Amino acid sequence: MILRLNPIFQERIWGSQRLKTDFNYDIPGGSIGECWGISAHQNGENEVSNGPYSGRALSDLWANHRQELFGDFTHETFPLLVKILDATDDLSVQVHPNDEQAYSLEGERFGKTECWYVLDAEPGAELILGHNAQTRAELETAVSNEEWSNLLKKQPVKKGDFVFVESGTIHAIGKGIMILETQQSCDATYRVYDFDRVDDKGTKRELHLEKALTVTTVPDVPVLARPSEKTVYAGTIRTLVKSPEFDVYHHQVSKGYSYPCREQFSLLTVIEGAGVLQNDEETMEVKKGDHLIITKDTSDILVASGNMEWITSEIGR
Fold this sequence. Notes:
- The strands form 5 sheets. Strands 1, 6, 16, 17, 18, 19, 20, 21, 22 and 23 form a 10-stranded antiparallel β-sheet that branches. This protein has a 6-stranded antiparallel β-sheet with strand order 2-3-7-14-9-12, with no helix packed on it.
- By secondary structure, the chain is mainly β.
- 14% of the residues lie in helices and 43% in strands.
């Protein structure tokens, strides 16, 4: 079974209206920075829009139909979250906790390891990824003295790049970058620095320096993803990362491509193009911006027409 989800949208100080122009989403007015496409998190949860489960929340399905729809999992809550971020301005410099820290500090079931597939990037666009401090004392001193140019590592990016961001890594998405993010289902973010920005009331956003310094990995240990690619009939598959938290893939597909049956659920977001998916049970038209869950034991899905790019993800085993 293929479940289509209704996306929800989050206003952010660094957002815009680009999600409407690029994905034809029906978004509210204002600075919309995030589309939450596949989420059961209480801060933004999706509902199914098709089939026998139409109108049901994802957390409801996980609680009541886990074995039949998703697989043999012991997680209390749905473990992944997929979103699209439109960084019209720089995001804050931030860091996320790991599983143990998230539970002790926030009562969250998961920490936040994440990864980014770059959907678009302006010329010269950069990320912040990691820091140069060798000891925790050195990190605390640099943060206290706001020595950002010496402390923070920058990395240029372009469309099609992939970045893995393990929990404990100081990071920020830079201005002019749009990404698809696959992450653990966690919304705990500790801001380290926010460029001294103020909101529409003239107030600086809160920083979380004590928690941030507690969860930051020192010294910084970058985890470099090494994507690999294979050619199959009517398409190519790039394995972007295989980690304990999730496995993520990029698919370039055309008519005749087959997405095989799996023993566990997978998540699928169409990032370019449009087409028709078909299997033994159903036929579905899909387009750029659609967010789908392929339930466990769904029969092989054939691309009956169209040319598309997908990002898919599964729970790491």
